Amino acid sequence: MIQLITKLTRNLLIVGLLTLVSCGTPKDITYFQDLSYGSQISPNEQLDIKVKPEDKLAILVYSSDPTLAAQFNLVQQQTRLTSSTSSAVFSGSGTTDGRMSFYTVSPEGDINFPSLGKMHIAGMSRAEVAEYIEKELIQQGQLQDPVVTVEFVNTGISIIGEVSHPGRYDFNKDRLNIIDALAMAGDLTPFGLRENVLVIREDASGKQTTYKVDLTNMGAITNSPVYYLQQNDVIYVEPNDKKKRDTTASGNVVYTPSFWVTIGSLGISIATLIVTLTR
Predict the structure, then answer these.
(1) What pLDDT does 74 receive?
(2) Domain 56-152 classified CATH 3.30.1950.10?
(3) CA geometry: angle 275, 266, 11, nearest 5 deg
(4) Cα–Cα dist 215/144, whole Å
(5) Residue 146 and residue 31: Cα distance in Å, rounded?
């Protein structure tokens, strides 16, 4: 009798250990499980970042006449102090030492551009803003051959949760996809949920919308409206159940081999005691 009970207890212990080992299946870690060699996937839409209220922009105007173009470029006048007087420092081209001021987009989506006045640029891409300013300069007779460059100064996203290096990341690309963004943060840790990455996006009115991204399905990723990120997007990688249990003192005890060894030993002791008492 005792041998039978002991054998059953040992079998239960083995089953428990096998179950424990099988819990961490590789399928939960692998990215892009729907892809095979030679697969071709294209995003539905090539989405550039768009100008939003409170964005800061560096806008430079060039022309064959540098002196004429300089009046359209905002510059910070740097003051040099001497023992007797102070003077502004200018370069030979009619500009200052090259440090540019930035345009801050108003809550209404406007900027005040020299000579052109108020210009509504919210919702435009970087290239569209440059084309808009060039067109206005020509039509209003300000410059005949303007070349305008526009750069975002404060374009950034926040990446938090189960990534190697959470934080705020600036980027200078017209299109940044979520895969590149997670790579910037050092990739997900082994405890991050690949199937439930959240992206929080705020629109011009302040309304926030949450999107779910499944990193194990590349087709679903590229069809997501948040495949290409916008400035100030927040990416949150949720921890898996094991990581959540780690927040308590005994949360993962039941999943450790020592726990099952203890249970097996206890089962054998109880079985032995029962047989002894029934003799």
Answers:
(1) 81
(2) yes
(3) 80
(4) 50
(5) 47
> CB of 5 within 8 A of CB of 279?
no
Phi, psi of 31 (to 5 degrees): -80, 160
pTM of the model: 0.69
Cα separations (Å) of 227 from 126, 150, 236? 19, 24, 14
State how beta strands 234-239 and 156-161 pair.
parallel
* Structure confidence by residue, pLDDT tens digits, 123-168: 999 999 999 999 999 999 999 999 999 999 888 999 999 999 999 9
Query: Residue 178: which H helix or E strand, with range?
Result: helix 178-184
φ and ψ of 239, to 5 deg: -75, 155
How many residues are recorded in the chain?
Answer: 279
- Return d(Cα 69, Cα 67) in angstroms, integer: 5
Q: Which two tokens stand for residue 86?
A: 């102070």
DSSP letter for 183, please. Answer: H
Other C-beta atoms lying within 10 Å of the C-beta of residue 161: 20
For 123-133, write each residue's pLDDT tens digit: 999 999 999 99
Cβ partners under 8 Å of residue 22, min gap 6 = none
| pLDDT surpasses 80 at 66 | yes
CATH classification (class only), 31-47+155-244: alpha beta
